[in-house]
Every structure is written in C-alpha cells, then in structure tokens.
User: What shape does this take?
Amino acid sequence: MGDKKSRPSGDALGREANIEMLKRERRANNAWHKLKRNKIAMAGLFVIVFMVLVAIFAPLLAPYPPNKVNPGQAYLPFGSPGHIFGTDDLGRDLLSRIIYGGRISLIVAVGATFVGATLGILLGLTAGYFGGWLDSLIMRIMDGMFSFPFILMAMILITVIGNGVLNVTFAIGIANVPSFARVVRGQVHIVKREEYCNAGKVIGVSNTRQLFCHILPNTMSQIIVYATLRVADAIISEAFLSFLGLGIALPTASWGSILKTGRECLTTAPHVATIGGVFILVTVLGFNLLGDGIRDIMDPKMKQ
Amino acid sequence: MIPTLLVVVSLTFFLTRMLPGDPALAILGPEAEADEIQLLRQEMGLDKSLPEQYVCYIADVCRGNFGESYSYHQSVLSLIISRIPNTLMLTLTALIFSLVLGVGAGVLAATRQNTVIDYCISVVALLGVSMPVFWLALMLILQFSVKMNLLPVMGMGSMEKGIGDVISHMLLPGLVLAVIPMGTFARTTRSSMIDVLGSDSIRCLRARGIRESKVIWIHGLKNALPPIVTVFGLQLAGTFAGAIVTEGIFSWPGMGTVINTAINNRDYSLIQGAVLFIAISFVFCNMLVDIFYMLLNPKVDFENGGH
Assistant: This one.
C-alpha cells in the first residue's frame, strides 16, 4: 500500500528528515491508527472490550452467584434494591446471570468462529491453491453444506451431539465452515496470481511455505473482517439454540438460556427477556460496527 | 448442481442416522415389547447395514417416498406440501415488503448522503441487521399482544373469518421476518447507489437535463441493481431460515414449525424429509439467483468462483 507511493528522494530533504517522514507515513497507514480514526469502529470496539472485561472479571463483578435460587424474592422488577436488574422466576439475580451468561455466550461465539475459521481456512486454502479435482471435491461438499440454512445445520448438529458448552461451540463452528472456506478460496484465487507468488514459485518455494507464509498472510485481512461479522452471528445462534432448549441447558446462565427463562415468564416478569435481549443486541451491534470499520480500512474502495 | 444435490442428499442421510436414539423405540414408546420393536425395525429397514440403508434411501428419495411422520400421523411428503404455502405466504410477503422499504430507504440515504436522514437510516438499518429476531418476536408479543391486547399471538387465523383475520395473525411474524432483510437491503442499496451516483454516466445524464427523479430511480437504481440482486438471493434463503426461527415462536403452521416439532419429538423421518426439502429448495434458489445475476451482468465469470 504505502510503499508503492513515490516519495521525495532522500537527497532533497536529507537522510534524517526522510527517515522521519517514512516513519510518520508508516504510522499513519498502520491499521491500528486508521482504526482509531474511525469513530464508529471504535464505538464497536469499546462495546466488545467492555463485554469481554465484564466476562473475564465476572466473579468479582457479579453481586450474587448466578445460580443462587431464592424463591422468596422471585419476579422482583427492574430497579429493585439489592437486585438492580430484578430477579427471575426462581429469584436468581438477573444482573449476576447476565454477567456470567456473557461469559458463556462470548466463549461459545468466539470459539465457534475460531473452529469454523480454522477448518474453513485449511479447506479454502487447499481448494483454492491446488485447484483441479481437489478443488471440485472440497467445494462441492462445501456447496452441499451451504445449502442447509446455517441455523438449521447448527440445530441438527446439536441434536446429534447433544447440548453443553463445548458441543454448542462445535456445532456452530462446523456450520460456519463452508462460508469461511468460500471466502478464503475466493481470496486465494486473487492472491495466487500476484507477482510475488509467481516469484516464489520460480525460486522453488515449497507448497506449504507458499501457502502459509505468502498466501495466507495476504488473505488474512479479509478473513479478519469476515470473522468479526461471523462472531455476531454466532452470538445470535447460540442464543437461539439455548432459547429453544437445544443449546446451553438451564440452570447454566447464557444469554440464550436467560431468554428461555424470560419467555417462560414473559407476562409475569417481562424485564427478564427484555434485559437479556438488550445485551445480545448491543454486543452483536458492537461486532458488526467493528467488522464494518475494519472492512472500510482494509478496502478503501468500500469507504464512502 | 447434480453433485451438490448428491452431497445434500447424502449429508441429510448421514446426519439423521447419527441422531441419538432408536426411531422404532421413539414411535412405539418406552413400554413397547422387544419383539415389537424388532418387527418395526425390520419394517423400517433399520436392521440392514448402513450402505444398504443408504441405497434404499436414495431410491426412496428418487421415488418421492419420504416415509411416515409419526408425530403428525401422515406421510412426510403430504405434510410438507400442505405446509409449504403457509411458509411461502409469510416469507414472500415479508421479503417483498422489506425489499420495497429497504431499497427505498437505501436510495433516500444515498441521495442525502451525510445528512441527518442518512444517519438515521444507517443506524436503523444496522440495528435491523444486528437484531436477534426471536427476541424481537418476544418483545412484540409483549407489547402488542400481552400489554395492548391488539394482535393475536398464535396460529395463522382462518380465511373463513375473512382476510382481516389472516392479516392480523401475519402482522407480527411478518414484521419480525422483515427486519433483517430490510436492514440488509437498505445498507446494500445505499453503498451501491453512492458508487453509481458518483459515476460519469449519471453526471452525463444530469448534464443532458434529464429529470432528477428519473436519473435516480430509473438510471441510477438500474445500475445499482447487481449487488442488490445478490443480496436478494441470499435473503431469499435467509428469510426461509428466519421462518424456522420465527414460525416456532408464533406457532405459524409452516415448515419452521414442522422442523421444530420434528426435532423436539425426535421424529426421524420427518427431520430427514423436511431438512432435505429445505436444502434442495436452497440449491434451486441459489441457481435462480446465479442465472438472474448472469442476465443482469454478462461480465460475470463463473469459472473463477463468481464475480
């Protein structure tokens, strides 16, 4: 990017000034500094960092244990003294459940995206780089998997392997594989025609080195954008699966299982569902904002 | 196309075979005698080896025989056929509604770029895209059915009570389904329109003194169409998937409810049939979009993985 621009020669400005200018330019083009200038992306990043910190420090922040049942104080409304978000049908403190639930929801969402991205990258790289029958084989299978709606695929996988945190992560992760494979393969097709790849081939770089040292790093920016947006979808998927009772089983708190409780007591304690959903919405919004922001930075053509 | 279908059919088979539990036991219930179960297993072909079952299954699928659903006591095929119109009615209404509103809002935002209107539309569109729809469904039920007691929550009403009954049942699920596509259409239209409106061809049209409304809504929108078509295709599939989420909550008697019931009751042949049906319709959906996209944009190079 930056290195392609013509710069004033060192002679005109002197060596020191030239180095200083190079440094400054580099800093300005640095992805992080570009991101810092994008206010919307920073808002998204702020939301995400906040949620992650809350999840990490859950035991310090939560006023009560998330599963502590107290039937005498059930259905306390929003803003009750001692229970700022109120309590649910069993008298569990909603704030504590949301804090601990965020932990599970974020772990599942990020884990699932990681599983999907890792497998998808491996398959996409192989298909895109080697081409031929291997490409056809992998991509036909991916097309087949892609023909199942994402959420349906996750629902069936979870029915097959049973519920629990690890299984939900795995099910959403596998459902994510085909779309990652497609994105990566498309990028590999673009990158592998670049001159540096041809140059690598000419000097006899091994396939593995070519794939992981030259092609993968140059597709990474697209993968990061895509992964950020997929985390948002994974949060919603986890919530939906748990909401149906297929994902994280009660009494374990996740944002989805809180919504399941909220649905059961929708008329008596509407605050449970309302607050649970607001946290999902805000977090998903955060990931979408950040994803959009990173895309604007990586791909200046998209910038409006 | 054919290989994709084969993968879809095989995946459905192996996934449903991997489901835990015994289909025969699920049908007969826990009190069934061992020899009864054995008999039913033989009848269903479950005593054969997996490859044999696979061949039988492919043959059955080709003949359109998807077996019996025990939770609905009717053949899977006739059940699916009877439910499809309900889902189509809901999804297509939502999709058309969201297409008109979303594209309209997108064009409006693009022509008034960086104004308050643009910001409002962009924020609402982003909220729509980020919405956990099943939660929105709960909130709407809470607001309109529980608190205000305005709209019904369950089922789809009946035509005998007049079209108004069906519409009032359709309002909430339709709105919930329309939210995500609406946001997506608005965002895509906006960015595509901004690109187009900055192009030389539009400047040229304006210079020729053609009416602004015609420049924007006819020439501009036409050139901004290809990405919208791609998104429309994705949303066509997405809304169908959304119906799986939404229908269950509103007990709308369509495919989504069928899938939910099938999974809850471990109705193996119904899961298999319904999943296969949805996947196959997705394959055709994608094919239609590809064809339409090619017609709109002859430069598309399908050999190299799309555009």
